Amino acid sequence: MFLSDLISNFVFEKTYNLKLKFGMKTHKVNYKLISFIVGFLVWLSATVLFRVAGHYFFIVDNALVMAVLYVILIPALGLISTSVFNKLNLNNLESIKSAAIMVLPGMLLDTVCIQFFENLFPNMPETYSKTFASWLMFAYSIVLIFGLLREKQKNVN
């Protein structure tokens, strides 16, 4: 199972349980909160992955490895963001808002991660921080692009 499936299933299951417990309305009403939670969980899992094993795969000196890491972001983050948009049955404007909300936790928290790179990622040299920041901006751009370029959704009413 993909990481995106695990995250989205976890978030939607917890939201559904809350909905039952507190008599809340549909997922669509809570799409902003769900988008924020998904964004935070993606940021947290990626940060932990880089802290623990980043030095094994984030090899700045190898152009091929870096190119693969940039290219891998497109389908991975496209799948995560599109699955959120589809699961929540969001229209075009809601998809744009959802994408912006999804990237906010990571963008805010990554400012701290970049500032204190050598402390948070001790297994990687500090010189990697520029490339890491570039890679992060690319990742956030991908999510925003998928929100903006979402095809017009048909009304299911």
Mean pLDDT: 88
The secondary-structure element order is: HHHHHH
Return the domain count: 1
Could you give the count of β-strands? 0
Shape: elongated
Q: Characterize the largest beta sheet: strand count, sense, and whether it forms a barrel.
A: none
Over the alpha carbons, how many angstroms does the gyration radius reach? Answer: 17 Å
Q: So how many helices?
A: 6
How far apart, in Å, are the first and last alpha carbons? Answer: 32 Å
Report the uncertain regions: none
**What structural category arises from helix and sheet content?**
mainly alpha
The helix content, as a percent range, equals: over 70%
Q: What proportion of the residues form beta strands (DSSP E)?
A: under 5%
Explain what the structure shows.
- The chain contains six helices and no strands.
- By secondary structure, the protein is mostly helical.
- The protein has one domain (3-148).
- The mean pLDDT is 88.
Write the layout of secondary structure elements.
Layout: H1 3-22, H2 31-57, H3 63-87, H4 92-115, H5 117-120, H6 129-148
Helix pairs in contact: 1-2, 1-3, 2-4, 3-6, 4-6
